[in-house]
Amino acid sequence: MSAQIWGLVCGYATPHRQRKLLLMLKGFIDDSGSEPSAPTFVLGGYVLPAEVWAKFSDDWNKELSQPRPRPIRYLHMKETGKHFENGQFEGWTVDEIDEKLLWLARVIHAHEPLVLTAHAQWSEYEKFKAQSSRATFIESPYKALFHEITRIMYGWGRNRGNPQSVDFIFDEQGDVGYEAAGWYADMKAAFPPDAQPFFGSTPEFKDDLLVLPLQAADMFAWFQRRKLCQPVTRPGMKAIEELITKFFIAGSEIDIDGFEKAAIDFEKVAKRRTQVIHS
């Protein structure tokens, strides 16, 4: 399974290939509320160098197959719900599910990934669209969330005096990654010139059955969404949540002002491009 990770960075020269930072991201929309205005959008994930992700992938795959309490082929957190049929956890007891998740959480914790996340309420995005003259620059809540995740990651590296370039890897199952690829050029242009070396290649979309760290990102984003909407209460689940968020960098909520700030950045990019075209 580690071969999938090395495939992501094969175009880089050694030792850059080994140290290349990869940010595994998962987007979640919680539409379980009874009102259309209830959803919470979450974008979050883990950051590690490629060489650590390679070791992680082998360890994760090994843990999936362990008979404690039973082996599974993959982890999709939505399948842990009691109403989900024909998934990896069909017929499992709650205690068995918690035990399996705890072992997988220990794999995450052992590799010490950096954790970051951003979220927004649909109601805030709706207010922004209704009230802002710049609403056309933020066509999806996830555009502002991706902008915020990028800002957090760059700020962390700059504060450490080491803003390394980062490649963004999304689960190909969702629409978020494909949208992010379309926004990426604007995203880079919205940051100052000295930030440009931070940006890696255009975001990629991978199958989480092959790129196993995306399953870990799924686990984190699921717990983050639950924390915001319906916090877990079972002791086992709370222990898991604590393990997988141990190395937290930052989390951010985007409200109407946050959407406006992101829109201002993208508006500046559009104006600069217009000026270049007419110059």
Q: What key phrases describe this protein's structure?
A:
279 residues, alpha/beta, globular
Let me know the number of strands: 6
Indicate the low-confidence ranges by residue numbers.
30-36
Portion in helices: 40-55%
Major sheet summary line: 6 strands, mixed
What is the distance, rounded to the nearest whole angstrom, between the alpha carbons of the first and last residues?
Answer: 51 Å
Mean pLDDT: 87
Q: What is the overall number of helices?
A: 10
Radius of gyration: 19 Å
What fraction of residues sit in β-strands?
Answer: 15-25%
Order of helices and strands: HHEEHHEHHEHEHHEH
Structural category: alpha/beta
Spatial strand order of the main sheet: 5-4-1-2-3-6
What is the molecular shape?
Answer: globular
What report would you give on this structure?
- The chain is of the alpha/beta class.
- It has ten helices and six strands, in the order ααββααβααβαβααβα.
- Strands 5-4-1-2-3-6 form a six-stranded mixed sheet, sandwiched between helices.
- Helix 7 links the parallel strand 4 and strand 5.
- Helix 3 packs antiparallel against helix 4 and helix 5 packs across helix 10.
- About 3% of the residues have low confidence.
